[in-house]
């Protein structure tokens, strides 16, 4: 599995549609300070489902939409499209090429799609979670983040390892199932109260 291309439209400083073609192996993005190198990495994290504005170096989620410059007005939406080569079947989907897209509108609406089919954020996260590109995004190490990894608590460090090993997904599912069970138990107790009141 490798990332084949990344297209940015209205995402941060990329007002015009810009496509980066990536080959297997190492890709380096070079450019002057402030030219948008980190914005490319932000786009990658964003299209894969990143939900934290802070992780995307913004104050609020809408900050990913092109805010305009002196010569160009602000745009109303941001879109990022990521194409992944899945010839080795690393992603659990019957396609040798997978295209994930995410669009955000300035009014707050958001859309995701996998291979052109509209889907939920959860579907994108589930698709990627076994590939090592989990929702915690530990595969993207930003400037200064290495210090954070080194200074992490033992629990935090365990989180990194669990995600890399693919355990985190199951832990999250277990937590969700336990929460549902608790809610069900509360409903049952309520039902028992009502039944005894009726007797
Ligand atoms: P450095 O080498 O200094 O780390 P960089 O190449 O990584 O820089 P980025 O941080 O990716 O640069 O890009 C910063 C630029 O992106 C700034 O000029 C900033 O104004 C612009 N930018 C960020 N968000 C938006 C937005 N929503 N609309 C327009 N421009 C934006």
CATH hierarchy: architecture of the domain at 2-135: 3-Layer(aba) Sandwich
Q: How many helices? A: 5
**Low-confidence blocks of residues:** none
Query: Distance between termini?
Result: 63 Å
**Beta-strand proportion:** 15-25%
The CATH class assignment of the domain at 2-135 is Alpha Beta
Q: What is the CATH superfamily label of the domain at 2-135? A: P-loop containing nucleotide triphosphate hydrolases
CATH topology of the domain at 2-135: Rossmann fold
Number of strands: 6
Arrangement of strands in the largest sheet: 2-1-3-4-5-6
Estimate percent helicity.
Answer: 25-40%
The main pleated sheet reads as: 6 strands, antiparallel
Structural class: alpha+beta
List the secondary-structure elements in sequence, H or E: EEHEEEEHHHH
The hetero molecules present are: adenosine-5'-triphosphate
What value does the average pLDDT take?
A: 89
Gyration radius, rounded? 21 Å
3D shape: globular
């Amino acid at each position: 599995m490798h990332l084949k291309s990344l297209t940015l439209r209205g995402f941060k400083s990329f007002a015009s549609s810009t496509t980066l073609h990536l080959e297997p192996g190492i890709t380096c993005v070079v450019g002057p300070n402030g030219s948008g190198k980190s914005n490319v990495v932000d786009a990658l994290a964003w299209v894969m489902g990143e939900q934290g504005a802070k992780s995307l170096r913004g104050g609020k989620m809408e900050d990913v939409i092109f805010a305009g410059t002196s010569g160009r007005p602000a745009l109303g939406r941001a879109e990022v499209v990521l194409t992944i080569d899945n010839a080795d079947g690393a992603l659990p989907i019957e396609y040798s090429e997978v295209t994930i897209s995410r669009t955000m509108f300035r009014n707050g609406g958001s859309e995701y799609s996998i291979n052109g089919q509209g889907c939920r954020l959860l579907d994108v996260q589930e698709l990627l979670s076994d590939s090592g590109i989990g929702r915690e995004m530990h595969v993207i190490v930003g400037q200064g983040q290495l210090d954070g990894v080194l200074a992490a608590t033992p629990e935090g460090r365990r989180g990194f390892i669990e995600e890399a090993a693919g355990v985190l997904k199951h832990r999250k599912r277990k937590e969700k199932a336990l929460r549902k069970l608790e809610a069900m138990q509360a409903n049952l107790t309520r039902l028992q109260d009502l039944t005894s009141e009726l007797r």
